[in-house]
Amino acid sequence: MSNYKMAVVAIHGMGSQSVGPNQPSSVPAFSSDLHDRVGRQLGQDMSKVAWHEVIWAQILQGRQMDYLNSISPYTGYDRTRRFVVCNLSDAASYRPTSDGSDKTYAAIHERVAQVIRIVRFQIGERAPILIVAHSLGGHIMSNYIYDLQRHLRHGGLPQHGVPVEDMQTVAGLVTFGCNIPIFLFAYPEQDITPIQRPNQELPLTLQFHNWWQNYYDKHDVLGFPLGPIAPSYGQLVGTGEITDQAIRVGNIFTGWNPFSHNGYWKARSLYEPVADRIRQILNAV
After folding, report:
1. Closest listed residue to residue 56, CA positions, set 102, 10, 117
2. Do the beta carbons of residue 229 and residue 180 sit within 8 Å?
3. Secondary structure (3-state) at 190
4. 169 - beta bridge partners?
5. How many CB atoms lie within 10 A of CB 266?
6. Counts for the chain of helices (H) and strands (E), in that order
7. 3 state DSSP class of 213
8. Which residues of 7-22 are buried (b: 16+ CB within 10 A; e: fewer)?
9. Which of 21, 132, 156, 274 could cysteine-pair with 151, CB 3.0–4.6 Å?
10. What residues form DSSP beta bridges with 216?
């Protein structure tokens, strides 16, 4: 019988990922630095944590690289151009559409669903989950949960009928370098609605008041606080349900500039609170 008591589900942000299409979700790749540092903090308790990754970059990565190769005779090799194509086009391509042509949006959400199904069969239908989401990954997870909750708000039944798959057992959400605000300017402030607490099917001891922790570095131009974007987010920050926390990430070469965006995975200011939240969940299980 599995010794796992909870799951961590990590999701990456925009940009290419150097992993193969058959990379198992249970083998840390892009999140290995965070996984290892959290493991050292937790010691033996780490054996009770099933760590999974949602890898979605391959959905767009092939087309992006094919395009870059096709234009190289005209533009040459340009790291900045590659950054734009492999990063900004991820954000541009991930969007729901009203005419049903949102293949990328649906395909990325199916990657999330696949990993959550693995968690279900590995730990159980009410497995507590901690989501750790970098950059665009925070927007993806917010949308994924929002879509399931919207279905319920409109009078529908739970889509899967299983609490963990319906994202009703999320004990905590940790976002870092999160850029949700830049996707919301098209909407009037009063119409912006955050996700509701995704922990309703957990025991009361796991329904933490502060269920969403958001971390950003002020030098990271792709990471933002959530509270100022709309009154609804500001209210959640005001009541302490969401915390916006400025931290320092990166090193002497990256900590003072936009390259800090990729520094969160190794930062003590992130892995210590992640380990603390995992410890809280394990103690309450």
Report:
1. 10
2. yes
3. helix
4. none
5. 15
6. 8, 6
7. strand
8. bbbbbbbbbbbebeee
9. 156
10. 246
Dist. CA 200–CA 69, nearest whole Å: 48
- For residue 137, the 8-state DSSP code is H
Say what angle helices 32-42 and 268-284 make with each other, to 10 degrees: 60
Buried b (16+ CB within 10 A) or exposed e, 46-73: bebbbbbbbbbbebbbeebeeebeeeee
- DSSP for 218-236, written as a single string: TT-TT---SGGG-HHHHHH
Token match 């098209």: residue?
186
Angle at 209 between CA 262 and CA 202, to 5 degrees: 95
CB 7 within 8 A of CB 167: no
DSSP codes of every residue in 161-179: SSTTTTT--EEEEEEES--
Give the pLDDT means over successive 10-residue stretches in the chain (285 positions).
Answer: 89 75 86 97 98 89 69 70 65 71 86 96 96 96 95 70 96 97 92 96 97 94 95 97 93 62 93 98 95
Q: Is the pTM of this model over 0.85?
A: yes
- Rounded-to-integer distance, Cα 279 and Cα 260, Å: 27
